[in-house]
């Protein structure tokens, strides 16, 4: 699936450097090509090409859904560029304005389970959830208040996500689809209960039956399909890693490395997967050794695909090390889940 567009640049511009800087801050891989650069995301690639004062961009994704998710990301990046005339931004093929977000559903909190002192599972009910059956992530739309009416975000004519100007704004965060029961119209998300404040963390701490939120998706990369796979992540990535392990019982990863808070978190790992997993613990000051172990395995098994997720600063260090070793961007996925 491809989608192309263009925008006018100011005569004196440094658009490629600005885009590279924006991608770097967003933990998006980029590499240079003649007259442009390519950004590699979980939804596909974006080729930016400069011709005098015209910027052309070509989005390439495996599916239409992924391409539709890329469009607002590109618009958001261009809005942060000082040399782009946003009024000139145009897509080849008209985009309908005021469209609801992709696969938008209202969801209602139905059940809350404490899996451990640090992990809370929240079950949501909603109509028509089959579209999320093959997705690893979705975007959770969290209203500021549950006591005021909600106007949900939508796509405007440029393809950007527009949040209506109300006193009950909605914020979006990506989460793993941990369990899905389509016939019973239920899905579950596991929330790691951080001690720090944040939109998702605050919701998880205070959630109650009947709360109404929204979902849209996909919200990130899918379940990795590489035959040879290395998985690694901290406690926030545990729901995603367990979902991947469940989906790949017939082809388990070569190695799985977890960084958990303490040994009590090990109880969250089903017995059937414990033989595949090596655990490190923050309580034992093993964060650095976990990071090094992940890199050592990635370097030793260069033919394997590495999927790693966790705290953003650590993920940037791992990504930088892989780049410096010359690893191609299509041989790994490094995701910053929190900061």
The assigned structural class equals: alpha+beta
What number of structural domains do the residues give? 3
Task: Please write the CATH class name of the largest domain.
Answer: Mainly Beta
Named CATH architecture of the largest domain:
Beta Barrel
Task: Going across the biggest sheet, name each strand in turn.
Answer: 13-10-16-8-9-15-14
Q: How far apart are the first and last residues' alpha carbons, in Å?
A: 33 Å
Please explain how this structure is put together:
The protein has helices at residues 15-25, 64-79, 199-206, 238-247, 287-300, 312-324, and strands at 2-9, 29-33, 36-41, 44-51, 54-60, 84-91, 99-100, 105-114, 119-125, 137-143, 154-155, 161-162, 170-176, 179-181, 186-192, 212-216, 229-234, 255-260, 277-281, 305-311, 332-338. The longest helix is centred in the N-terminal third of the chain and has 16 residues, at 64-79. It folds into three domains: 2-91, 2-Layer Sandwich (TATA-Binding Protein), CATH 3.30.310; 99-216, Translation factors (Elongation Factor Tu (Ef-tu), domain 3), CATH 2.40.30; 229-338, Rossmann fold. 34% of the residues are buried. 21% of the residues lie in helices and 37% in strands. By secondary structure, it is an alpha+beta fold. It is globular and about 60 Å long. The strands form four sheets. It has a seven-stranded antiparallel sheet. Helix 5 packs parallel to helix 6.
């Amino acid at each position: 699936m491809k989608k192309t567009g263009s925008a006018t640049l100011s005569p004196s511009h440094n658009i490629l450097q600005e885009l590279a800087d924006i991608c770097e801050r967003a933990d998006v891989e980029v590499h240079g090509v003649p007259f442009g650069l390519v950004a590699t995301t979980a939804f596909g690639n974006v080729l930016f090409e400069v011709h005098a004062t015209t910027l052309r961009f070509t989005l390439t994704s495996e599916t239409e859904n992924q391409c539709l998710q890329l469009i607002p990301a590109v618009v958001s990046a261009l809005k942060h560029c000082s040399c782009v005339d946003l009024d000139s931004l145009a897509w080849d093929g008209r985009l309908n304005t005021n469209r609801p977000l992709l696969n938008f559903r209202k969801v209602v909190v139905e059940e809350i389970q404490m899996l451990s002192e640090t992990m809370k599972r929240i079950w949501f009910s909603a109509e028509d959830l089959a579209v999320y059956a093959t997705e690893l992530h979705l975007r959770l739309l969290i209203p500021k208040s549950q006591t005021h009416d909600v106007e949900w975000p939508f796509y405007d004519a440029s393809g950007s996500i527009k949040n209506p100007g109300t006193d009950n704004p909605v914020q979006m965060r990506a989460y793993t689809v941990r369990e899905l029961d389509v016939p019973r119209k239920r899905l579950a998300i596991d929330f790691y209960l951080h001690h720090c404040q944040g939109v998702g963390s605050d919701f998880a701490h205070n959630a109650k039956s009947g709360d109404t939120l929204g979902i849209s998706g996909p919200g990130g990369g899918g379940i990795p399909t590489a035959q040879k796979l290395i998985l690694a992540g901290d406690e926030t990535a545990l729901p995603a890693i367990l979902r991947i392990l469940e989906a790949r019982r017939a082809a388990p990863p070569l190695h799985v490395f977890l960084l958990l808070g303490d040994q009590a978190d090990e109880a969250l790992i089903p017995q059937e997967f414990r033989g595949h997993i090596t655990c490190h613990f923050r309580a034992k000051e093993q964060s650095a050794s976990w990071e090094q172990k992940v890199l050592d395995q990635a370097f030793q098994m260069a033919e394997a695909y590495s999927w790693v997720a966790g705290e953003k600063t650590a993920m940037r260090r791992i990504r930088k090390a892989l780049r410096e070793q010359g690893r191609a961007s299509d041989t790994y996925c490094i995701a910053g889940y929190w900061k």
